[in-house]
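Lab channel / #folding
Pinned by the channel admin:
"Please post every new chain as: sequence first, then the structure tokens as a reply. Keep commentary short and put observations after the output so the thread stays searchable."

First post following the new format, from NK:
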Amino acid sequence: MFRRTAPSTKGRSLLHVIKLVSPFVMVVLLQAAIAGFSLEVMSSVRAYVAGEALWSRSQKNAVYFLNLYLHSGNASQFAQYQASLAVPIGDEFARWALERDPVDVETARIGFLQGGNHPDDVPGLIWLFRYFKQVSFLQEAIREWAATDPMLLELSVFGEVIRSELENGPVQDGKRLHLLSSRLSELNTEFTVHAKRFSTVLGEGSRAIKMTLTGVNIVTAVTLILLLIWHTRRLVLQRQAFEDALHAEKERLAHQAFHDWLTGLSNRRAFEARLQSELANTGTGSLGLILLDLDQFKSVNDTCGHLAGDRLLCQIAQLLRQDRRPIDLVARLGGDEFGLILPRCPPSAAADIAERLRRSLEMLNFAWDDRYFAVTASIGVACIADGNTTLEDAMRRADAACYRAKDKGRNAVQVDSARAEVVVVPTRTREAARA
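Reply from TO:
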């Protein structure tokens, strides 16, 4: 049994790159295909234009040399007539071969070569005729081309008739000679009319094709540019989204690093960093430091479970946040221990805040599964005005005050200052309040 393995990082990177560049590759390939098609069409049309010029010149030469032969009887002129006539006849055979069903490509190739067309142009001549003969301009050009077939036949027969007559010597009958010469001139005129039409139609078609293909190439190029803009914008947005997500993740991690996961309060790390900063600035005023430790929190956990304990901690955190100044800091230091930093707070104000917190906790009615629990706390307050106090000294003084509050019966506030020590004894207990 084979185990499916995850694609390698290199493989994923390659797939990602392919995904990114594939739209551009497709458009570039399309542009290249259109450009190649355009070149092939234009090259084939140019070959027909060049072939028409050769075809037209050859039929004129055929009439010219036959007329000279008529008057001189020179055999070399008749040979030149035959050589010139072979060019349009070869083109005629090529057209007939292409109009057959099925198409006789080999005969068409031989015919076009006999017509004097360049061997490299012959495949394009055949391709354009086979697949685009129904296009209006080419259809009209072919119609003009085909209209010369009877003339070529007449010119060919006319040549044989003149040669037969000249075998017995020059034509002596002036009227007969004039009649034959006039017919040759008429044939030349008729050839010229169709040749001009053929050339005109091919020229108009060539210009139309050029404009159409130019437009198609422009549209394709614009599409490529728009695709590039869209794709670049998408990449920018993706990068921006990634950076936003990364920034949000950094903020989340930073928040987690300095905040308690349960209550959302600052954690011990943030608390100690802030306290260190405030101790360095105690010259601006007295600093109040409060440590609060719940008295009977373990009984809630043991009786109702940790979920109840977590709920109680969240309620206490919400209570500690109330009525705090923006410059104050409330933190959960761990377990059931909380701390407050009160910048620019004199000892009397810090003691009042601690006493109000004690009373608020005492009045907190915490219930879980129809069980009610008394919530009290032992609170230690350290009032610091000395700029030389260290973090350890400040925490030690507040912690010692908190323990003294516990030793004095819990549910109490103990203030420790550099000048005096004041014990604030609760005036009302929960039992007295209930009474």
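NK: The radius of gyration is 53 Å.
TO: also worth noting, Confidence is low (pLDDT under 50) at residues 419-435.
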